[in-house]
Amino acid sequence: MKQIFLVFLLGTLLMGGCNSSKITKEKIESTTELNVEKKSLAFSFKDIILNEGLEKGMSFFEKNKSSENYELIENEMYDVAYQLLYDSKKGTEAIEVFQLIKKAFSENARINDSLGEAYLAIENYDKSVKHYRRAIEMGQGIKFYQFGFLDPQKYTRTVLSKDTTQLFEKRGNENQEVVFVFVQGGPDSELHIGRKDPLYLMSDKKDILRIYPYQTLMLNSDLIATEPILTKEQSAYENELNAEILHRVISYWKNRGKKIYLIGHSFGASICMEYLNSKKNQTDKVFIMGLDLDEDPRNFENVKSGEYVRWKEGTEPYVKRIYRWIPDDYPAKSGFDRAADNLTMIVKNNMDKKYTELLKDEVYKNMIAVYATMDEANGPKSKKEIDFIESKGGEVIEVVGDHHSMVSKTFMEMIYAYLIEGKPFG
Q: What is the CA radius of gyration of the chain?
């Protein structure tokens, strides 16, 4: 039976107090002397720039950067630079602040990335490209928004390590009997593990055993820069490897006597479906979130190079550019189109399949399909597919919200309560 939930994001305001106590005059004087609050050099500096101009602001900074009355904090300087860049529309001033950060602290990937962004904003494209590429050189990995700066590469097949422990990241208590395996959306070049990842949002996050499988693009970032664009055969091979990674990770923990709960969201759900299609299912429960078993063909209609389909309020398809912030005359524009088209080929390979025809009936007994009413990424879920899943013994859950409402704290805690505490959804 289809179940419907309304997901709200709630905030909590924590307020605390303190008790006063009698202290001596000497202690008062000592405490006052030791706790003189320093002013923020960054915010004082910003006010002078806005009120009196860049030249006087720079003079104030140089005069007070070593003053005992002011405190220079790197993150505050970044805050000031971005406020000047976007709130005050003062790109030149923002760049000067970024340059001060570089001089006062150190050159690193972060400062070059920010300079690349700032030069892009003021349309100095050559310097923008220079700093973005410098950021990649100095960084620990490639970010989604940096894909277009990679040099074109010939296709090289991804090769998996024979050591399965190299194919996933682990968090939490390994002594637990239950393993939560989360396959994230994307495709992306890195795992997003931390305060916003769905498993972290669950109750008892420190105690549950959380597993995050890698994907081929995370192991082989050159895929995104492949030229010519990935073929159907190459994309199929990489997606087969994604299913193989998931199979090996699940087998690793199943062989250690664990109960496996598999959760896949968006592109991660397509990897889960291909796992169910091509491998022996060893999971105890599978959540397919934000993706249909049979994708709506409109997801790939009328799409040109560099574009993809989104859904207005989850119902009406329209085409937009993946890297829409990149101007047409940007020097690296062709690199971003190449990256977008390779992403599309990776995504489209699994989504072209009709999993209602491919999956075996026994798979549905442990399947819960979750969809959102206003899914801007995947579009509407058809009544035909809902009825089909339920007729096979699977469950279907509707969440009122967008593509990411399924991985909110509220809904993830519902999943935890359902799986661990035996509570029904709702």
A: 26
Block residue for tokens 């082989």: 220
- For residue 415, count CB atoms less than 10 angstroms from its CB and return exposed for 0-12, middle for 13-18, buried for 19 or more: buried
What pLDDT sits at residue 205? 67
Q: 39-140, what's its fold?
A: 1.25.40
pTM of the model: 0.87
Distance (Å, whole) CA 371 – CA 287: 10
- Where do the domains of the chain lie? 39-140, 164-420
pLDDT tens, residue by residue, 413-423: 999 999 998 99
The string of pLDDT tens digits covering residues 342-401 is 999 999 998 899 999 999 999 999 999 999 999 999 999 999 999 999 999 999 999 999
The C-alpha atoms of residue 331 and residue 328 are separated, in whole angstroms, by 9
Distance CA 394, CA 389 (A): 5
Burial class (CB in 10 A: 0-12, 13-18, 19+), 326: buried
Say if residues 245 and 266 touch (Cβ distance below 8 Å): no
Q: Which CATH class is domain 164-420?
A: alpha beta
- Find all residues with CB under 8 Å of 332, minimum gap 6, and list them: 129, 132, 148, 149, 326
Beta strand ranges found along 15-73 (DSSP E)? 39-40, 70-71
* Start-to-end C-alpha separation, the chain: 13
Distance CA 162, CA 248 (A): 10
